[in-house]
Amino acid sequence: MKKKLHYLIAFLLAAFGLLTLFLSASVIFDLFGIRAKEGNYVLFIVWANFISSIIYLVASYGFVKNKNWTSTILGISALILINAFICFIIYIYTDGVHETKTIGAMIFRIVVTIIFVAFAYFTINKKNQININ
């Protein structure tokens, strides 16, 4: 059962990572006309999402292989997103042009990432600690 849970989490994380990679790369590299559809995007937010998408894909491998570093790299992704969000809030308060939907999207992404960190910690790290003792 636990093996299936790891595969399910890995699949969800990989799907989230691939979607994020596609959307952020499309804005950064102006693919498929998505940049124009995004309106007033904030480039450092897009880059933070792009970097996180790569981390999500690596972490999905970590889930499948039960690697202890999975929670660490997902934690790094969460920190990248939190720092980008703090900078984004400062950007907003300095009258930076942005889309309001970005606020909700970043909160959602941060929460989802933290949930994946918790899954990695409690299903991999804690399990491996018990096996060591």
From TrEMBL:
It comes from the Bacteria. The chain crosses the membrane at residues 40-61, 73-94, 106-124. Keywords: Membrane, Transmembrane, Transmembrane helix. This is Uncharacterized protein. It comes from Flavobacterium celericrescens. The lineage of its organism: Bacteria, Pseudomonadati, Bacteroidota, Flavobacteriia, Flavobacteriales.
